[in-house]
Amino acid sequence: MRDIPGRTPKYMVIRDDLIRRITSGEFAPGDALPGQRHLSDEYGVSLMTLRQALDELCDRGVVEQLPGKGTYVRAVPVPYSMGNLRSLADDLRAHGIEVLTRVLSHEIIPVPEDLVTRLGIPANGEVLKLERIRVVRGAPLIHQLSYLPQPFAGLLKDVDFEEQELYAVLAERAGAVAVQAEETISPVLMPEHVGDLLGLPAGEPAMRSERITRDASRRILVVDLAILAGNSVVIVNTREVSGDQVSYAMGGGAGLS
Asked: What's the pLDDT tens digit per position in 188-220?
């Protein structure tokens, strides 16, 4: 039986202790908590008091109670920020989130037809295609395709992108610094081939990001296309008087700014 101080309401002590046990990794996202009777015996309280603590955790989004199944730890949403020019991995690390990169492909290819207009290069040109999986808190959550036109493609063709970040290498090797990016986020259904890579069901809600990054001379540095797991990633944007501009497109194409 766990010791519970006398002055603090017992359900609050249980609530805070369960949060501590979850954040310490004793119970991971997706894990079921021990049964209510087990927990009430462990903490030496009534089922009513234990349920009050669990209700508080539900209200905070820490756990969810599934009728007939039990109480499960919710996955902590991963913030995807739009208000800066950092790389995705650097941005996640700025939030204190562990992120690893798996490189699936890294090769120079003929420019894909659908990118000819975006990149403004001849249809017979070449780009560096970089395909990566972003593993966040141990779970693969983001599939990312990056395309770099020449001369950047040739300069970065031998970089180990599991160890180095794209924007940092661009600045170091090519002297190309990102100063402006246009990004579009739209809801999609998880494509089957991406779902297979992320270990997620095809057809479940997801988000698609398309980002075009330029330098001070308006040269396109990178075109990024990403699929983000819809149940684990939240979009975050910081607005300032002189900061970024955000526009919203409605389903029928009407625009609001």
From this structure: 999 999 999 998 899 999 999 999 999 999 999
The CA distance from 11 to 31, in Å, is 21
Please state, as a whole number, how many other Cβ atoms lie within 10 Å of the Cβ of residue 158.
Answer: 7
Give which of 86, 16, 23 is closest to 53, Cα–Cα.
16
CB atoms within 10 A of CB 77: 12
Residues 173 and 158 sit within 8 Å (Cβ to Cβ)? no
Helix, strand, coil share (%) of the chain residues, nearest 5: 25, 35, 40
At 44, phi and psi to the nearest 5? 70, 40
Distances (CA, A) of 215 to 71, 81, 110, 175, 179: 49, 20, 23, 10, 5
Angle at 117 (CA atoms; ends 177, 173), nearest 5 degrees: 25
Burial (Cβ within 10 Å: 0-12, 13-18, ≥19) of residue 127: buried
Query: How far apart, in Å, are the Cα atoms of 51 and each of 19, 38, 56, 73?
Result: 15, 12, 9, 15
How does pLDDT run across 164-195, given as a tens digit for each residue?
Answer: 989 999 999 999 999 998 889 999 999 999 99
Beta bridge partners of 70: 66
pTM for the model stands at: 0.67
The residue whose two tokens read 């939240």 is 234
